Amino acid sequence: MSETLYDRLGGRDAIAAVVESFYDRVLDDDRIAHFFEDTDMSALRAHQTTFLASVTGGPVEYDGADLSSAHADLDIDGRDFEIVARHLDEALAEFDVSADDREEVVAAIAELESAIVTAE
């Protein structure tokens, strides 16, 4: 049985550490921080950890709201999406995730862009 991306990333604890760094970066970025002003960040961090664990092949099932519904009223555009993706890549790099594995994570998120980008 081949090792999953989840395993290569180091499992749930490692993903949680990446998520912490990722949201620190996002919240420090004035271009996108406003999207999170009224958000319970502790809950969102836990939710995002589960989400990333799921999309990377971990032994968890994502049971959150569908992405289109969750992002429908946020007016996120393609530029916002790219900024967030860049912060995710940088957070992964901070934890010495290989370039190939970082690319695989970002590609998995990019597949969801049409559900997240809601700006006309």
Automatic annotation (TrEMBL):
It comes from the Archaea. Signal peptide: none annotated. Keywords: Heme, Iron, Metal-binding, Oxygen transport, Transport. Gene3D superfamilies: Globins. It comes from Halorussus limi. Belongs to the truncated hemoglobin family. Group I subfamily. GO terms for molecular function: heme binding; metal ion binding; oxygen binding; oxygen carrier activity. Its cofactor is heme. This is Group 1 truncated hemoglobin. Pfam families: Bac_globin (PF01152). SUPFAM superfamilies: Globin-like.
